[in-house]
């Protein structure tokens, strides 16, 4: 019996996609991604996909996967421009062109060019609450008076005074927070191409700012914030995180 031999079909390789980079980009040779799989690029035309093999036998999404995903993107961003995927995605080598279709590549390439040479830093400022409250008391006679008449007396007998005291403290902290946030903005503005202010939600938070910074301005930025941190050390702490992939300034992939 004779028949036509069918070509052997190789099994599609499952990939994990971190983001997009310029077509000529090269990640570090030994960069490990999720489950220790080596990170590489697959060129798609005008852009390239930053990938590793997907985890074997499971879907990604564990806390360690999230940490490694960000670590890969931040490491690549130190030397290459990257459009990060915030949460990553799995696909196959056969389906990758569908995940990054040709008709979108010109837009992605333009976005990469716009971000060329930049990274993100994030600056956090937070009050030392006891210190800043002490400063409020020292500066505001009404707060001092209300504190003195409520100290050592029952909450019931001083209900209205305590209510007024709380209102004054909240208002005073917000005025000070707005002023100190602008102090942080002024300290970094000379070294940033763009900035995004995240809403602060915790009591005592002063600023949460994403900064787009040229790589050559990273050291001057760090120096400026070290100077600011020394200047305001009596009332707040200042922390700089980065360099990072430009999560707040990149288009969605």
Distance between the termini: 53 Å
Report the uncertain regions. 1-9
Number of continuous helical runs: 7
Average pLDDT number: 85
Main β sheet profile: 4 strands, antiparallel
Q: What's the SSE pattern?
A: EEEHEHHEHHHEEHE
Task: Supply the helix-strand structural class.
Answer: alpha+beta
- Integer count of domains: 2
Q: Identify the strand order in the major beta sheet.
A: 2-3-1-4
Question: How would the global form be characterised?
Answer: elongated
Q: Approximately how much beta-strand content do the residues carry?
A: 15-25%
Radius of gyration: 26 Å
Can you give keywords for this protein?
elongated, 253 residues, four-stranded antiparallel β-sheet, 8 strands, disordered N terminus, 2 domains
Q: Can you describe what's shown?
A:
This is Gas vesicle synthesis protein GvpL/GvpF. Pfam families: GvpL_GvpF. By secondary structure, the chain is α+β, with helices and mostly antiparallel strands. The chain has 2 domains: 14-116; 120-244. It is 38% helix and 25% strand. It is built from 7 helices and 8 strands. The chain has helices at residues 63-77, 96-99, 102-114, 129-139, 141-150, 159-188, 218-231, and strands at residues 14-22, 40-43, 47-53, 83-92, 118-127, 194-197, 205-214, 236-244. The strands form 2 sheets. The chain has a 4-stranded antiparallel beta sheet with strand order 2-3-1-4. β2 and β3 form a beta hairpin. α4 crosses α5. The longest helix has 30 residues, at 159-188. The protein is elongated and about 80 Å long. Residues 1-9 have low confidence and may be disordered.
